[in-house]
């Protein structure tokens, strides 16, 4: 226990309590009324973790900050199909100015799946592979 606590304190001292993960935007979509953006990004937190796909709902034009505030998932140790960015496949689409639909690879390990963020309602669909590898919005994975 003392070793673990010492390691945590050392880590915080070295990193200065900052986020040590790298975020790479994959897609940014403005809501139909322009008030919000849905931002899908890949999060890489180092060699001991895999890539994750995350989504944040932010006010229009705002920057990402930290983990996804709406959706977070990884590929479940290779079980889920991945997108060309390295994390599990995810697709998003605005259904209305305050309703976002998120579809994701069915075998993903989901860590966060909020129903609403910043007055935006979010619906989710797990999508498996079909015979022709076509997904809900016509893209392949």
Report Rg: 17 Å
> Structural class of the secondary elements?
mainly beta
β-strand percent reads 35-45%
Strand order of the largest sheet: 1-2-3-4-7
Average residue-wise pLDDT: 83
Low-confidence stretches: 4-18, 131-141
Count of helical segments? 1
* Pattern of helices and strands: HEEEEEEEEE
Overall shape: globular
Distance between the termini: 44 Å
Number of strands: 9
Major sheet details: 5 strands, antiparallel
Please estimate the helix content: under 10%
Keywords:
five-stranded antiparallel β-sheet, 42% strand, single chain, globular, 10% helix, disordered C terminus, four-stranded mixed β-sheet, mainly beta, 141 residues
Q: In brief, what are we looking at here?
A:
It is built from one helix and nine strands.
How are the SSEs ordered, and which strands pair?
Layout: H1 2-15, E1 22-30, E2 36-44, E3 52-59, E4 71-74, E5 90-96, E6 99-105, E7 109-113, E8 116-117, E9 120-127
Parallel strand pairs: 6-9
Antiparallel strand pairs: 1-2, 2-3, 3-4, 4-7, 5-6, 8-9
